[in-house]
Inverse folding.
């Protein structure tokens, strides 16, 4: 057990990252990931945009010509 002033850390009780993810409910999609699609609903590609801000359709079109719609997952 390590002592940091009055604080004591017991390494047996420290939660690891994978345990925290299990408590949260597993892995999620990348926050702010934009999916760009053509008119036939084919995925053209993705890019990251935190908080899904700005004109996402224009951003999709600048990366992938032929984009007609998008979906953004936060």
């Amino acid at each position: 057990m390590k002592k940091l002033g009055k604080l004591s850390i017991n390494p047996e009780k420290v939660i690891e990252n994978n345990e925290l993810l299990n408590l949260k409910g597993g892995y999620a999609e990348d926050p702010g990931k934009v999916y760009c699609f053509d008119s036939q609903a084919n995925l053209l590609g993705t890019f990251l945009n935190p908080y899904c801000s700005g004109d996402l359709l224009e951003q999709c079109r600048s990366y992938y010509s032929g984009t007609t719609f998008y979906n953004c997952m936060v």
Summary: The first helix runs from residue 17 to 24. The first strand starts at residue 2 and ends at 4.
